[in-house]
Amino acid sequence: MNGLPADMLVEGCFVHATPDVNMVVKEEMVMGIRGGKIMFFEPKDQLDICCEKFDMNKDVLIQLKGNQFVMPGFIDSHAHAPQYTFMGTGGDLPLVPWLLKYTYPTETLLNNDLAFARVVYQKCVDRTLRNGSTTVCYYATISADATKVLTDVVESRGQRAFIGKVNMDMNSPEGYIETLEESVKGTQEFIEDVLNRQNPLLTPCITPRFAGSCSSDLMAELAKIAQNRSLPIQLRHEGNQCMTSCYVEFIVTLLPSALTVEIQLKHQFCSGLQTILAHGVYLSDEELDVIKQRGTGISHCPNSNFSLKSGILNVRKLLDRGVKVGLGTDFAGGHNPTMMDAVRNGVTAANVLTFTMSKEEIEAEALTYKDMFRLATLGSAEDNVNDVNDDDNNDDDDDDDDDDDDDDDDNDDDDDDDDDNDIWKFIRILYCLIMCQAIEQMRDRIRRATGSYEDLLTTVKKAQAEMVWSYHKIARTFKDDHTRHYTRKEKERQTREVIGK
Question: Which residues are 14's β-sheet partners?
C-alpha cells in the first residue's frame, strides 16, 4: 500500500471515538497492522504475546514520542475537487450567483482540458492528505472522462474515496448541461471504469448535484442504477426554507417530486442504500423521521454554511433524534479544505445557535470539540445501511380508557380542537397543491423565457410572490370561517353551562 511495509507496530498514545464516547484517549498502547488492517490493539505489556500470536517481528516497532499520538484519519463527507482552484472567493455571493460566476465556468474548463484537470486534482488530493483526510467523498464534474482523471489521481495517492460524476440535466447554463441520456450513459461509463480497477479503496457514487438541477426522470434513472449496483448516493439538500433564501430561483422551478426530502428518499431513493445528504439545514421534523428511518446520513458543512449564508444546522437536534451526522469541508463553498477547520467551525456554529437560548437550553444543546471530533471520524464513517427501527408500541391504551369518564364539555372542547386541526391540515394540503401547480407553470415559463439572467430572476421572484399571495388569501378565508365556527361553538357551550346550572 504505497510503500508501507506489510507489517507495522506502533506504540504510544492513541485517540479515537467510539459509539458511546466521543473522544477516548488511551496511553501506553500498541497497535499491530498488517496489509493496512488493524490486527490488534492492546496495552503495550501485551506486545510479546501479540507478536507471537500474529507472527510479527518487533523490529518493525515504531515508538511515538511524548508529544505524538495516533488517531483515525479524517473522513471528509462532502467536497468538490474541481473547486479547489477558487477557494476563498465569492463569499459576498449567495449560492446560485456563486455557481454561475465561479463553479460552472471552472468545471467546464476542467472538462475541456484534462491535463489541467490532472494538475488541479493532484494539488487537491495532496492537500487533503497532508491535512489528514484519508477518506473523502468527492463531487467531480459532469464529464465522465474528467472524473476518471480524478479517480486516477486518488488511486495513485492511496486515498480512500467515494467519487461521483455529477448529474445535471435541467436549470443549468448552456455549455454545462447534459441530456438525460448523456447523463445516464456517462454515469454508467464511469461506474464501469471504477469497478474494473478492483481497488477496495475506490467507490463510485451516484451524484445528482441537487434536486433543482435534475429532472424527475433522471433522478429515477439514477435511483435504479444505485439499486442495481448497490452504490451509495450523495446529493445536496438545504430544506424547504430555501424557497425564501439564497437560491429561491432554482427551488421554485422544481418538479413537485423534488419539493421535500421525504419524497426524494421514499420515492426516488429507496431504503437500504447508503445515502449522504449534504447540509440539510432546514429539514422538517417529518423529513428527519424519514431520514432516520432510511438510515441516511447528514454531512454537516459549517464553513460553507457560513460562507454562502445558507444557515446553521442544529446538530444536537439531529443527534438527539438518532440521525447520523458526519462532517464535511464542502470546499470551495467552504474556504478551507482541512477537517480541523470543519471541527472549529462546527463548534462555532453550535455556539452561535445558543445566542437565543435560555441557560437550561444552552447546557442541553452545547457541543464541544469532542463532539466534532467524533463527527469528523466515526460520524462520517458510520455505514448508512437500512437500520429501520420500528416505532415503539403505544403503552397508553389504559390511559385512553380512563378518559371515557370525562364530561361532555371536555368532549366538546376536544371536538373544537379536532375541527381546528382538520381545518389547518386542509389548508396545508391545499397550499401544497397550489405550490405544485405553480411550480409546473413556472417550469413552462422558464422554458419559454428570453432575455438576461436578471430578467429571468425577476420573473421567478414575481411568480413566487403571486404564489405566496394566493396561499395567504386562501388561509385568511378559512381562518375567517373558522372564527365564525368557533364563535358559534363557544355560544353553544355557554348555553349548555347555563342550562346545567
Answer: 26, 70
Measured CA to CA, the distance from residue 443 to residue 243 in angstroms comes to 15
465 in helix, strand or coil? helix
Q: Of 13, 129, 126, which Cα lies nearest the Cα of 63?
A: 13
DSSP state of 391: P
Cα-based distances in Å from 390 to 272, 274, 293, 385: 15, 19, 9, 15
Q: What is the DSSP letter of 331?
A: B
* Residue ranges in 67-158 assigned as alpha helix (H): 95-98, 104-112, 114-130, 144-157
Cβ contacts of residue 450 below 8 Å, gap of 6+? none
Mean pLDDT, 10 residues at a time, the chain of 501 residues: 73 95 96 92 96 94 94 97 92 83 95 98 98 97 98 97 96 92 98 97 94 83 90 76 36 37 44 78 84 88 90 92 95 95 96 82 81 95 50 41 45 51 50 53 55 61 61 55 57 60 49
Cα–Cα distance, 342 to 368 (Å, whole number): 13
pLDDT tens per residue, range 321-340 = 999 999 999 999 999 999 99
Q: Identify the residue whose cell numbers are 444546522.
A: 313
Pairing of strands 74-80, 207-208: unpaired
